[in-house]
Amino acid sequence: MFIIHVIKRKLSTGVNDMRMRRFAVALLMIAFIAVSAFAGGSKEEGASASGGRPVLRVAMECGYAPYNWTQPTDANGAVQIADSNDYAYGYDVMMAKLIAERLGYDLQIVKLDWDSLVPAVLSGTVDCAIAGQSITSDRLQMVDFTSPYYYASIICLVNEGSKYENAQGVQDLAGASCTSQLGTIWYDVCIPQIPDANILPAQESAPAMLVALNSGRVDVVCTDMPTGQAALVAYPNMRLLDFAGSDDDFQVSEEEINIGISVRKGNTELLDAMNSVLDTLTVEDFNRMMDEAISVQPLAQ
What we know:
The protein is of the alpha/beta class. Helices cover 37% and strands 20% of the residues. The protein is built from eleven helices and 14 strands.
């Protein structure tokens, strides 16, 4: 009933932007799946296929390096994606494995599009999303979040030789053609701060955003530091602009750069359990794991 209420509220506002329409469609799809699963019974619910430990169902894109990506083998400890012959790895998988092991769960990775992550958590199709999500106030209205499992600063990427290559602050990007990933603070909050920016349509994924820059369709993309560091491995012709510490940096709140694990509202048992694991880790642990993820991403080999 909560899902249907959210859908009605979204549609009744008359808002016609693409994100709201896509979010409502995603909710409808997840609601249908959830109802079908309830009617037919869940094969995974509560226990693994062998009847042993409970299963932690974790959603992510499996296409957002270095947080998560898809690869053909279980190299480096990758986990097989549900209903797929492929495997997922990256920082989010490393974190999911650590949490599942500490809490005594078997781990199942569920591959979903970015816009389907929150609806899947809402419906109970998955237990949580570990997917590089910022802990924003908008998301907190729909789901609960753990304490941060990473702190990500905002950066920009440009191509080598670009007239913006030596930019020292946001003002130096004035007039640039820009884009970023759909449904992120990079697109919604950061690039509108660039003076006279030519803001092009948001990209469906982080890889699509990088392709747009590499092809020259845009001058600048905005993202976070780990994504930028991973991009430099895949695209050595790109240059990273970090305005942190300057008087002309992007203005973002802590909630917008703190990355958390989303769970269904009211699921305090799982939320508290995961926080108990995260409380044992330090910022240095997070950075060490992220550095490892960047070093083994497929395009780094």
